[in-house]
Amino acid sequence: MTSPPPAAVPQASALRAAIQAMPGAGGSPLALPSARGVTLWKVMGRMFAIQTDAPKNQSVILKCDPHLAEILKQQYAGVGHRSHLDRRFWISVTLDADVPLAETQRLVAHSYDLVRAGLTRKQKAELEALAT
After folding, report:
1. Average pLDDT, stretch 27-33?
2. Distances in whole angstroms, Cα of residue 18 to Cα of each of 22, 72, 75, 122
3. Is the overall model pTM greater than 0.85, yes or no?
4. Nearest CA to 114 among 50, 59, 40, 48?
5. Sheet of strand 90-94, all strands in order from the earlier edge strand to the far edge
6. Which of 20, 21, 94, 124 is 20–30 Å from 45 (CA)?
7. Residue 102 to residue 27: CA distance in whole angstroms
8. Which pLDDT value is given to residue 34?
9. Between the CA of residue 57 and those of 23, 78, 126, what are the distances in Å?
10. Cα–Cα distance, 64 to 92 (Å, whole number)
11. What is the pairing mode between strands 57-63 and 79-80?
12. Selection from 32, 33, 2 nearest residue 15 by Cα
């Protein structure tokens, strides 16, 4: 597991702790020089979050239900799209914007649940065994 940089906003540290507590969740830093401070979070080998801890850009990219994504984009200035991923299913949440930490943590859990629902029966059984 990676640790947050010293300049991390409190939301970034709290979010990282919440993600690490999810059964089967594993984070690995991207090995690209242009992606310093980026952690790719997966469950059973499937991505559900990309957390960026760059000093001027602390955010998390999450899988999201398309209808909910549209509502969130209208409700919060800190929710948008910032990646090569399909904008219908992925949102970016800026951690030091107007999105409350509790809402961001709920969205992380939503992303995790969406990915978990798409796992095979065998993967779900393996994940269940990890949770007990």
Report:
1. 79
2. 7, 21, 23, 25
3. yes
4. 48
5. 25-29, 38-43, 46-54, 57-63, 90-94, 79-80
6. 94
7. 21
8. 64
9. 27, 12, 35
10. 10
11. unpaired
12. 2
